[in-house]
Write a structure and sequence with these properties.
- Helix content is about 10%, strand content about 40%.
- The protein has about 475 residues and is mainly beta.
- The strands form 6 sheets. It has a 7-stranded mixed β-sheet with strand order 12-11-10-14-19-16-17, with no helix packed on it. Strands 1, 2, 3, 5 and 7 form a 5-stranded mixed β-sheet that branches.
- The chain starts with 6 loop residues before the first helix and ends with a strand.
- A hairpin with a 5-residue loop joins strand 22 and strand 23 (about 375-380).
- Bound molecules: CU-O-CU linkage (C2O) and copper (II) ion.
- The site of copper (II) ion has 6 residues, from loops.
């Protein structure tokens, strides 16, 4: 099912004709591609050598103004160039032109207001993934910012400290726009977390992991594959090909985010050194969980504390992907330097588990691929239709949702606007690292996963979907209205 037509050509043509844009619309956003021939564009670059460049950490977005209760930000969605491959500037789409986008650091109880301007020549929006936000600010795939327009998102931040992220959700475009760079971190901090004295500052490091493919001229090469989703041949961390990172002999908090279109990872440090998981999608666990591998489906987040004091200065510790090979088997390298440094501590207890209402309804969703008519991914026999509401859960309740995977692929299932607990996995027990609030859960082939979403505190219309972006676009997404 992989496409054979050069994807930029198909994208350009389809978007230009189908969306009534001028023919230069998308091409002008990818300047390198316009200057190369179609033949060259279709040619893949050879794999790139890892560890050639130092890890970059995305800058933190500075508020344009603040009051006692609120921080106001401005963000522009536009074009940019990023040094993904050392020595090459690759055209990207970026928040404020950079890839990954700037990190927003929010504080529980302080509202973040983000005025977002769309400087790209096609519709955009911003979804705060894992954010518990009013429906009007959720970035529903049909709530769009037109070219040249802007929209002000209001994020109340009345949720636990957690590693969230923001990305494009414009329907029909987001698999490509996210591939071309539109994703950034949004980190919520709170008082409970402060009391734990976890590693912070330079010792609190976001690591967004993605797979990419490149043309010979260094431009990004997207290939549409609605069966598997896009799979690249090169791993990129914080926007750079398999970087190296000079760490002190200290405790580090690493915030792993899998922002790949479709690839899942099984991360291993130094061939099985422990990583202590402290948080998942929705925030801190009750207690830390020591792990030798960390699995990460698309859109999932896992925060770990790694003790680099155990290594000698000069040690080189590899982070590898047990599910990959060649260029996708190597993620990055930590180069241990210097003396032992105190950077925080690893607590034994973290966020107590809160009591929630028992489920008041059960809904079953069959994850399936339909080949009658145009092939598409479906949930219980239907695909996305913006005119249809597929579930009406009641505000303030919880339900049991069954994800029954009857297809030949795994699916990372994600709900907007709410968090859930993972109750059961038909394949075995729910791992300890999945016992805190989550917003995305991997459902393996032939597996049934039962989750318990808590609906609220905001009513309104939200989508839920597979976060394999190619599955999502073709059309594995439904809508609920919390009433
Ligand atoms: Cu990352 Cu619909 O979301
Ligand atoms: Cu899927």
């Amino acid at each position: 099912m992989a496409s054979i037509t050069p994807p930029e050509l198909r994208w350009t043509r389809r978007d230009a004709l189908g969306r009534g844009m001028t023919s230069i619309a998308v091409l002008c956003a990818l300047p390198t591609a316009t200057r190369t021939s179609a033949g060259k564009r279709a040619k893949a670059a050879a794999a790139f050598a890892p560890f050639q460049a130092e890890l970059r950490v995305p800058p933190t977005l500075v508020p344009v103004s603040s009051t006692a209760t609120e921080d106001r930000y401005e963000l522009t969605i536009g074009e940019g160039r990023a040094e993904i491959i050392p020595g090459t500037l690759t055209p990207v789409y970026g928040y404020d032109g950079i890839y990954p986008g700037p990190t927003i650091r929010a504080r529980r109880g302080r509202t973040a207001v983000v005025r977002t301007t769309n400087a790209l020549p096609f519709n955009q929006n911003v979804h705060l993934h894992g954010g518990i936000v009013p429906a009007a600010s959720d970035g529903h795939p049909m709530q769009l910012i037109e070219p040249g327009g802007s929209f002000t998102y209001t994020y109340p931040n009345l949720q636990d400290a957690a590693t969230l992220w923001y990305h494009d959700h414009a329907h029909g475009l987001s698999a490509r726009t996210m591939f071309y760079g539109l994703a950034g971190y949004y980190i919520v901090e709170d008082e409970l977390e402060d009391t734990l004295e976890l590693p912070s500052g330079d010792f609190d490091v976001p690591l967004v992991i993605q797979d990419r493919a490149f043309n010979e001229d260094g431009s990004l090469r997207y290939t549409e594959n609605i069966d598997e989703g896009f799979l690249g041949d090169t791993i990129v961390v914080n926007g750079g090909v398999s970087p190296r990172f000079a760490v002190k002999r200290a405790l580090y908090r690493l915030r792993f985010l899998n922002a790949s279109n479709a690839r899942a990872y099984r991360l291993e440090l130094g061939g099985g050194e422990p990583m202590v998981q402290i948080a998942g999608d929705g925030g801190l666990l009750e207690a830390p969980v020591s792990r030798n591998t960390v699995s990460l489906g698309p859109a999932e987040r896992v925060d770990v504390v790694v003790d680099f004091r155990r290594f000698k200065a000069g040690a080189q510790v590899l982070l590898t992907n047990g599910l990959g090979s060649g260029g996708t088997g190597t993620v990055m390298r930590f180069d241990v330097t210097g003396k032992r440094t105190e950077s925080g501590r690893l607590p034994s207890q973290m966020r107590p588990r809160e009591a929630i209402p028992a489920p008041s309804a059960t809904r079953r969703w069959d994850l399936m691929f339909s080949t009658s008519g145009t092939p598409e991914w479906q949930l219980s026999g239907i695909g996305f239709d913006m005119e249809r509401i597929d579930a009406r859960p009641r505000l303030g309740t919880t339900e049991r949702w069954l994800w029954v995977n009857r297809s030949h692929r795994a699916h990372p299932m994600h709900l907007h606007g709410v968090h859930f607990r993972v109750l059961e996995r038909s394949s075995g027990t729910v791992p300890a690292g999945e016992r805190a609030w989550k917003d995305t859960v991997m459902v393996a082939v032939d597996e049934t996963v039962i989750v318990q979403p808590r609906f609220g505190p905001y009513p309104g219309r939200y989508v839920f979907h597979c976060h394999n972006l190619e599955h999502q676009e073709k059309a594995m997404m439904l809508q609920m209205e919390i009433v």
